[in-house]
Amino acid sequence: MLGEDAYQRSRLKRDNPNPEAFRDNRTARWQGRFDIDLGASGTLAVTPYLRYQDMRFLQHFLLGQPLEENGFRSIGWQSAWELPLTDTVLLSTGIDADYTDSFLQETQSDVVTTSSVLPVGKHYDYRVDSLNGAAFAQLRWEASSATRVMAGMRIEQQDYDYDNRMIDGATSDDGSSCGSSTQPLPCRYSRPADRQDSFTDLSLNAGISNALSASQELIFNLAHGFRPPQTAELYRLQSGQLVADIHSEQIDSIELGWRGNWAALDYNLSSYYMEKSDVIFQDAERRNVDGAATEHYGFEYSLSWRLATEWTLSADGTLARHEYADNTPLQGLPPGTGIEGNDIDTAPHSMASVRLGWTPDAHHARARMAAYRTLFSRADANIRLSGSRPVASAPAARVEPFADAQRARHQPWRRGLCRACRLCIWQLPLFRR
């Protein structure tokens, strides 16, 4: 669907400007859980898992419509050992590990007549062996019958072993330059030489909760987190960049919450403020760099009202602002464009959902759900803004959407704004076979 407010035009609901587009994805996952009672030494839980994914994806939105093929196979485990140190202090500690063998290929079949730097043939062909190891410890202290104090830390090591299976550099797959014989140019897609990268990071958290009564609780949390660079940010480079000298993103947050129930109403309310540093982005020259800064603040709510024994009305949502905290030279913006204080273009100001659930017995549940989100600015410089629209969304249970299903069919799979990976909203299109 193309054009501003195109989603509001019912006659466009069956249009498909890119009938050749496809995404063929195959995935399989397995996990188990083993709980071991160690007697006086506490309890041990070990969760091993296997994962597999293989995908073919036509990038119809790019010139030349290159075909991307990617996948991975991984094995790992998570563990947690819980040991009571005293009657009021509990220690939780563990070691996690993951090994992943991944690959990515990108191939362009169509000639692009409007650009001389987008060659036909292979753009990327690489494999990455990834090894992740982490150790954590968390203390929980029941300071009184009403007050609980928690503090913890996690140290993580992420190693990448990258193997480029093509010629190094920003050339065609046969080693020739792009451009013309009289004016050769580097091709758009750059391939680093084989290399290894490692990232070591530490996360910290501390919090306190206080029960105001049997049904009311206040929560206060402080946290420091991180995100290592992804393989695509390190090795899927452009415009002649041969090394991405980037580091892990860092985030600091503070949160205040209030949860409880009153009569037939359960609620969970929280406000937060976050600062991110070393944010990875693509600059004006299409290079993957870090050093950007952003800030995030907002309010979240989760409400559930028991209408009757079998009926529940629930609502979840967030009101937030996500802004650039410096004048980062983002790709696509004219040099010198000031964006400090502007909204991040992919972060909506609000998202919400309402669910009506009916539970006739313990084994069956049906729900109807209406989700609503505000659209976001279309450019980092906030050049264009758009309005709001309802979308169909689905929780884990069976869902029949209240929202306009025809508009929802044009929504792509997209993970919504995820605040510190704690509030995640998914949008699910309803496809007609």
Question: What does the model show?
Answer:
This protein has a 17-stranded mixed sheet that branches. It has a two-stranded antiparallel ribbon with strand order 8-9. Strands 10-13 form a two-stranded antiparallel ribbon. The chain is built from 2 helices and 23 strands. Helix content is 2%, strand content 57%. With 433 residues, the protein is mainly beta.
List the helices and strands and how they pair.
Elements: E1 23-31, E2 34-37, E3 43-58, E4 67-84, E5 89-108, E6 121-142, E7 147-164, E8 178-179, E9 184-185, E10 189-190, E11 195-213, E12 216-227, H1 231-235, E13 237-238, E14 249-262, E15 265-282, E16 288-306, E17 311-324, E18 350-361, E19 364-374, E20 388-391, E21 399-401, H2 405-408, E22 414-415, E23 426-427
Parallel strand pairs: 19-21
Antiparallel strand pairs: 1-3, 2-3, 3-4, 4-5, 5-6, 6-7, 7-11, 8-9, 10-13, 11-12, 12-14, 14-15, 15-16, 16-17, 17-18, 18-19, 19-20, 22-23
Q: What assembly state would you assign to the polypeptide chains in this entry?
A: single chain
Main sheet characteristics: 17 strands, mixed
Please count the beta strands (DSSP E, at least 2 residues each).
Answer: 23
What percentage of the residues does DSSP assign to strands (E)? Answer: over 45%
Computed structural class: mainly beta
Rounded to an integer, what's the Rg over CA atoms?
Answer: 25 Å
Principal-axes shape call: globular
Q: Can you give the mean pLDDT?
A: 85
Spell out the helices and strands N to C: EEEEEEEEEEEEHEEEEEEEEEHEE
What is the tally of helical segments? 2
Residue windows where pLDDT falls under 50 for at least 5 positions: 375-379, 382-433
Distance between the termini: 19 Å
